[in-house]
Amino acid sequence: MPTILLCSDGSDFAEGIYKYGAWFARRFQARTQVLFVTDIRQKAVSTGNLSGSLGLGASDQLLDKLVNLEHEKAKLNKKRARLILQNADQVLKAEGVSEVELLNPTGFLVDCFHDFEADANMVVLGKRGEAAEFASAHLGANIERIVRSTNKPCLVTPQTFAPIERVLLAYDDSPTGKQILKFLADNAQGLKDLEIHIATVAKSESDEGRGRSLAKTQEQLQQSGLTTTTSLLTGDPEKAIAQYIEQHQISLLLMGAYGHSRIRNLIIGSTTIQLLRSSKIPVLLFR
Amino acid sequence: MTISNRKISPFSWRSIKREWLVNPKADILSGAVVGLALIPEAIAFSIIAGVDPKVGLYASFIIAVITAFLGGRPGSISAATGAMALLMIDLVKDYGLQYLLAATFLTGIIQVIFGLLQLGPQMKFVPRAVMIGYINALAVLIFLAQLPQLTDVPYMVYVITALSLGIIYILPVFTKAVPSPLVALAVMTIAAITLKIDVPTVGDMGELPTAPPVFALPQVPFTLETLQIIFPYAFTLALVGLIASFLTASLVDDLTDTPSDKNREAKGQGIANIVTAFFGGMAGCGMIGQSVINVQSGGRGRLSTLAAGIFLLIAILFLQDWVSQMPMAVLVAVMIMVSIGTFRWSSFTNMRRVPRSEVLVMLTTMSVIIFTRNFALGVGIGIVMSTVFFSRKVAKLVFVDKVLSEDGARRTYNISGQIFFVSRDEFASAFNFTDPVESVTIDLTNAHLWDQGAVEVLDKTVQKFRRQGIEVEVVGLNQASSTLLSRLATEDELVTGA
Questions:
Q1: Interface contacts A/B by beta carbons within 8 Å
Q2: Which site from B75, B105, B140, B184 is most exposed, i.e. has the minimal number of CB atoms within 10 Å?
């Protein structure tokens, strides 16, 4: 049974994570794991004392104080973690997912992530987290690092859930593009009722190579029983794709996380980042 | 799907980032509090050592900055300290500043070697009672060092000291948002200037820095004679510096519930002292009081230590006119606060609960240091005493159970405990050689023989029984004990029996 790992931080984005996660879990008949990492930095409490003066037995008193403060804080953190995970459990069960596993390690998300990611087939993350609720055009602090360090498909979700009906595959001939095709073909069973759009951005409309590979792609997907339409777009990839999403009311975008430039091999492609930032729909990233 | 083979170990970068950027805001803020608090201390310690205030101020800046990068304990504060200053007095008096700088350099070298040899974990041989005695002695000595500033001085000095102490201790009751020692410094300095009160000021004590430190070699002849002069000082400074730094590190470990790297700390301290020597600063080490203030003010990462050093330098360069007019009396008040804050009051309030031998070790360490002004000697005596007390306690745990067989011909001694040179007598006194039995069994299943003394006493016991015409059998030796026996014993039964 495939596993979908939902990384939650209990922020406003959590709901979106659970609902999209549940959607995929139902489609792929997967079990879900909800990961909430209690950040170890939250341990660093402040006494709010800047007096710089030391009384009798200062270090003993300070130790007592810190132990008590951290005790209270850790208790609150634990309680919070429990509530967040309970909520996740409720939402997922209500969405019809039966197998839900709740995970609550303490540490740094970026460290713990790899222990759990290894067994998962897909990872779901919120576009932003609790640290960045205001700045709407920015990505969360962890997202880039996680997408960069995993090779599992990563679903980056917006705050609110909208039913998925039309899927756009931003296709290029890269190995990542082939991987996306394989993913679609492998999971064709769960995606049959969806409209799948395949778009390639070419320099000019007369790009025959692109056109041919697009046709081949369509053929491949139709063989696995999916309904597809293709289009050849031109111009700036970011704008062209964004426009297409708008025009055709696309509700899920599939794309590669890599840039084409070899120099950028280690970071996410800049087009990817721009699209992640601006899009209001979930994006499933592949590497 | 395979587990991703992740590129270039990002771990080191990550750990660097974590040590530096855990909570930058709080780190910089607490660094500022500590940096400003370091000014009066650095000046006061320079005066204790008998050098210009700038020597201590440069040292504090450089040591803080270098340990921020190279130290093994993020969040601890190192700078010019009282413990080190107290050890330099004679050297400065007899040979002058340049020899102090040379000794500081050598101190650093010794500390780096200590770190390279990975001797950090060996600090476990310094027991807690010795550590506490050391801290208490340090507090008392810092206090005593202030007395010269309080004898034969105008009565206004006492007034200023008392008022400053009042501000330092009472202000935090109303607000904890501003460092009370700094408020005391500011208020009293302004008062002294505006009211034209004539009391000794920091400017009277020697030169203050007017520029950032510059590189210079210590001006000493590079001869064996120089080495003979500075080595004893450097060696003591190195050890005392390390003890203080490790102590500070484990205190911060406890306060923040995070680990530290002792070998790295030794190397960091060493390099800091080496560099300090070339920039005209005196040797320094970890500061217990300031580290507590740092953690208390919210400092946790390396950034707090770096910020402390940088704030110190900026403040001293911008405020030098004010600093030179600071009344010494306020400085005395700040140092009295440091001394009180350093003193482990609980070691006296707990005295009835702590084992007597440990109280004795603590008091002995403390008084030896106070009377001889020699930290290394005090700690050495403390360690020896603790070791003796410990071995005596273990030696008392020798139990002997005597069982007579039903026919009255055979006696079995069941021995349990540690048999070594200290517990020989306990062992020997357990046997009754005039027992009217034919044979004796010594069962050592629950005992361990540790050294030559143990083998000797067992040998003698067997001999004595044999002289009484009693057959002896030794059983139940564990592997280590029997190896020792077969190598050292003279009685045939023991050698073959082993």
A1: 110
A2: B140
